[in-house]
Design a protein that fits this description.
Blueprint (H helix, E strand, L loop, with lengths): L4 H5 L7 E2 L16 H16 L13 H5 L11 H10 L3 H13 L1 H5 L2 H4 L4 H10 L6 E8 L15 H8 L9 E6 L4 E7 L10 E5 L2 E5 L2 E2 L6 E2 L3 E5 L4 E5 L10 E5 L2 E7 L2 E8 L4 E5 L11 E6 L2 E6 L6 E5 L4 E5 L7 E8 L2 E8 L3 E8 L4 E9 L7 E5 L2 E5 L4 E6 L4 E3 L14 E8 L11
Antiparallel strand pairs: 1-10, 2-3, 2-27, 3-4, 5-6, 6-9, 7-8, 9-10, 11-12, 12-13, 13-14, 15-16, 16-17, 17-18, 19-20, 20-21, 21-22, 23-24, 24-25, 25-26
InterPro entries: Kelch-typ_b-propeller, Kelch/BTB_domain_protein, Kelch_1
Organism: Cervus elaphus hippelaphus (European red deer)
Protein name: Kelch domain-containing protein 7B
Length: 451
């Protein structure tokens, strides 16, 4: 085995970060066993693992579970296939479930290991992926991204001479950023984990894939030293670990990040029409068809629906574009002829819901049927100020957030309307861009692993 029990139980591997808000929880080793019995079991297990041939019954037929009850502590990429085969051979569903759960907890590492992933059956692969979201509740989360042109430390605007003087001086380190999750029973937001300070949050793209939260691109530094980043960070809520994956081919800021059919798509960005996709199995980015000529890629909204990607908005044009991954091509969709400011767009049940801002009214919702290509008006939400809403889908409910409001837009067979619920607004002030997302958290504390 590549690691000793002490190494496996230790912290994250180099280049990875533990979450600071929730901490790590260890998995119980057994029930109703005394200390002496556990020590004896560990000794037998160590002898068993060191034998040539690996996965044999140490104490004779019918006693495999007593011998391997602690095997999950020794699981790694090189041993999980053997552990699964051993469990199936000796009809040990407990060990098989532990092995599936371990591979699910560390799915990205499993996907990137061809010698491991290719030997899994289709049913095994589906089970591992489904376990990512099957062992706990789905929750609404949010992250505040710094404004692209936010005020300086003294509150001055970016164009003032005093602000320019401050920009050339040494900048204070930014305060730590946290992922927060909403607890409906408490009607409250709670911190989940601290974001690594190495992640450039200003202007980055954000989305979830396989129950990982990905942050891509952004702007690193400030003033004359500001540069776009191509780095990609991801957070695993099942292990409470931050890590990095392969950087994008092109540095991007103000991009849109979309997940579709097991791939990530990085779309556009400041002065960019290009697009590229990330395949976790190959840990590689591939160039895709760029946005069509005449589009302006900044300040757009993008969402995946029914196997395609839809992009709308932008500073200059009010268009709806559709990208087909099968054809690697874009085409134009009918638009609603509305020139209102688009706030956000999400997909639910074959429909696109676009949230427009209308002065004096608030948020007006337009619904697009991706099958018939027709638009209809859905509902409106009065707002105290025409501040943009950012939205995320959880079940059949669309959560709509800004710094003053947390609203729910519920879609049923006959209706699609806002609900009169007094939900707690996001608690951290009024600055920055509020980006909601959904994750599935473990029912108990995450198991910290070395991966």
């Amino acid at each position: 085995m590549s690691q000793s029990p002490k190494q496996e139980a230790g912290g994250a591997a180099p280049g990875q970060h533990r979450g600071q808000a929730t901490g790590a929880a260890s998995r119980p080793s057994g029930r109703g066993q005394g200390l002496a019995e556990k020590q004896e079991e560990a000794r037998k297990l160590t002898v068993f693992l060191q034998r040539p041939g690996g996965w044999r019954v140490a104490e004779g037929p019918g006693k495999s579970r007593a011998s391997v009850v602690a095997l999950p502590r020794w699981l790694d990429l090189g041993s999980c296939l053997e552990a699964l085969a051993f469990a199936q051979q000796h009809e040990d569903p407990g060990l098989a479930q532990e092995t599936y759960a371990w591979m699910s907890d560390n799915l990205l590492h499993v996907l990137r290991d061809p010698s491991l992933y290719r030997q899994l059956s289709g049913a095994d692969r589906e089970r591992i992926v489904s376990l990512r979201t099957g062992r706990g509740p789905a929750v609404l989360g949010a992250l505040v991204l710094p404004g692209l042109y936010g005020a300086s430390r003294s509150g001055l605007t970016r164009d003032s001479p005093a602000a320019e003087a401050l920009a050339v001086g040494p900048a204070a380190p930014p305060p730590p950023a946290y992922l927060h999750v909403f607890h409906p029973g408490e009607n409250a937001w709670r911190p989940l984990t601290e974001v690594p300070q190495e992640a450039p949050l200003r202007g980055c793209g954000l989305c979830t894939l396989h129950n990982y939260l990905f942050l891509a691109g952004g702007i690193r530094g400030s003033g004359a030293e500001a540069v776009c980043s191509n780095e990609v960070f991801c957070y695993n809520p099942l292990t409470n670990i931050w890590s990095q994956v392969r950087p994008m081919q092109q540095a991007r800021a103000q991009l849109k990040l979309v997940a579709l059919d097991g791939l990530l798509y990085a779309i556009g960005g400041e002065c960019l029409h290009s697009m590229e996709s990330y395949d976790p199995r190959a840990d590689a980015w591939t160039s895709r068809a760029p946005l069509p000529a005449g589009t302006f890629p900044v300040a757009h909204e993008a969402v995946a629906c029914q196997g395609d990607i839809y992009v709308t908005g932008g500073h200059l044009f009010y268009r709806l574009l559709r990208y087909s991954p099968v054809k690697d091509a874009w085409d134009e969709c009918p638009y609603s002829a509305s020139h209102r400011r688009s706030s956000d767009m999400v997909a639910l049940g074959g429909f696109l819901y676009r949230f427009d801002l209308l002065r004096g009214v608030g948020a007006a919702v337009m619904r697009y049927n991706t099958v018939t290509g027709s638009w209809s008006r859905a509902a409106s939400l009065p707002l105290p100020a025409p501040a943009p809403l950012r939205c995320a889908v959880l079940g059949n409910t669309i959560y709509c957030l800004n710094h003053q409001v947390t609203a729910t837009f519920t879609v049923s067979e006959g209706t699609a309307q806002f609900q009169a619920k007094e939900l707690q607004p996001f608690p951290l002030g009024t600055k920055g861009v509020l980006c909601p997302f959904t994750l599935t958290l473990p029912a108990v504390g995450p198991l910290q692993t070395a991966l």
